[in-house]
Amino acid sequence: MPETTATVEKRKKRYGMVIDLRKCAGCSACTVACSIENNVPEGHFRTWVKEMEVGLFPDVKRIKLPRLCNHCEDPPCVKVCPVQASWQNEDGVVLIDQDRCIGCKYCIAACPYEARFINPETNTADKCSFCIHRLEVGQLPACVTTCVGGARIFGDVNDPESEISKVLSQYSVNVLKPDLGTQPFVFYIDGDGSLMAGDYSGLRLDHTIRLAPGGK
């Protein structure tokens, strides 16, 4: 189980996601389901799968790395928003108030995970919301329900009986860019150090990145 702060432990619920890289087939069913569920404009993505090569020849392996908002416990995007449009609910989900957002892009610059974009239809910031509208009626995020390999596990980290808590207790997990101290709540099984610490800025779905040991 990852270390948690006092703030997390005080929450009645703390939603998070585990992505098992051993099970991700790179089929992008999650991306399609998310785009349909959330009416994401063409050419933009709330979740996507990055195909990567890690290591140096001959010790090279190919990895599919699903990406999305990390719903950090200490989200830098919330801190920089000048109109409080980016905010965090009581369950730890980072959200955007579309009525308040002025499209200044401060949050996009502050996010170290390249998870945000300006929606060209609304001219406001957009990103993964863990399908908050589905959570409110007791349903799982669309990407979780459509993952053919069962690679995505979602739930309440503070509930010891939840599937995600049991998985976190059983497996060693990593987060992206842990040195930044943002405390991401998207965890990866089988993600090595070079993969988790890598710089993926400017990459898109059709790019392959090759990382040497240490993320260089």
From TrEMBL:
What keywords are annotated for this sequence in UniProt? Answer: 4Fe-4S, Iron, Iron-sulfur, Metal-binding
Top-level division of the source organism's lineage: Bacteria
InterPro entries, per this entry?
Answer: 4Fe4S_Fe-S-bd (IPR017896), 4Fe4S_Fe_S_CS (IPR017900), DsrO-like (IPR054822), ET_IronSulfur_Cluster-Binding (IPR050954)
Its Gene Ontology molecular function terms?
4 iron, 4 sulfur cluster binding; metal ion binding
Q: Where would I find the 4Fe-4S ferredoxin-type domain in this sequence?
A: 15-44, 92-121
Q: What is this protein called?
A: Tetrathionate reductase subunit B
Q: Which organism is it from?
A: Candidatus Carbonibacillus altaicus
